[in-house]
Amino acid sequence: MSKEKDDNYWRDKLTPEEFHVCREAGTERPFSGEYWDCFEDGTYRCRCCGEPLFHSDSKFDAGCGWPSFDTEVAAGVVAERPDNSLGMQRIEILCAKCNSHLGHVFPDGPTETGLRYCVNSLSVKLDQDESASQSGDESIKKEEE
Ligand SMILES: [Zn+2]
Fold it and tell me: Which residues bind Zn(2+) (predicted)?
């Protein structure tokens, strides 16, 4: 039901890098993003609209340089559509709510779902679990170089 927002709306709301990935189906460089090696507990929300998309419980290290998940946080929050660009047959994944580009899903996941949701860090934002932070042990590792 959500009305399609126009490019100007998103250009205003997002950084140029986020705009390119989320609204123009770009791909960030592998190992360049914020979350590919982040294993904090929490919910990964859509960078554009805040909708919960993935949970850290389903995140695994695929070694590909992008955050990878084996399932969406709830059925239907991630939309899929065929992507035959670059001479490859892939399935693009998008936020079902705002149509933001997330990445691609591949049928070669190592876990029981058999799926690998390969997501751009720029497409999501980690919302850390409150339950995890109330242990009082603030061991937040952030690599900023
Ligand atoms: Zn969204």
Answer: 46, 49, 95, 98
